[in-house]
Amino acid sequence: MHNLKTELPNCLDDSGWPLRWHVRAYCEKNRAFRDFVLSRFRRINGLEGDADFTKADDKRWNNKIDIVLVPDSRLTDY
């Protein structure tokens, strides 16, 4: 559980699991962008205006990578 933190949200994402939403936000306590599970928030205190960090500042979120998916070699054709 996150206590006494200030998160500056910039993205809302559905992980694909039912009712499992994540907020991508800048965490001032850790000084980094992090993913937070929305259902773990107990309350949201007042909003204070525009954030100092935006989605454009989140290098990991904006970095595109290529992945190659291959079947496990232990699998057989059936």
Give a quick precis of the structure.
This protein is mainly beta and 78 residues long. The protein has one helix at 59-62, and strands at 7-14, 21-27, 32-37.
Write up what this structure looks like.
Strand 2 and strand 3 form a beta hairpin. The chain has a three-stranded antiparallel beta sheet with strand order 1-2-3, with no helix packed on it. It starts with 6 loop residues before the first strand and ends in a 16-residue tail after the last helix. With 78 residues, the chain is mainly β.
Helix-strand blueprint:
Blueprint: E1 7-14, E2 21-27, E3 32-37, H1 59-62
Antiparallel strand pairs: 1-2, 2-3
Q: Main β-sheet: number of strands, strand sense, barrel status?
A: 3 strands, antiparallel
**Terminus-to-terminus distance:** 46 Å
Q: Class by helix and strand content?
A: mainly beta
Mean of residue pLDDT values: 77
Beta-strand percentage? 25-35%
Strand order of the largest sheet: 1-2-3
Task: Write down the overall geometry.
Answer: elongated
Indicate the radius of gyration in whole angstroms: 17 Å
- Low-confidence stretches are none
User: What multimeric state do the chains show?
Assistant: single chain
Compute the number of helices.
1
Order of helices and strands: EEEH
Kindly state the number of beta strands. 3
Helix fraction, binned, reads: under 10%
Protein name: Transcriptional regulator
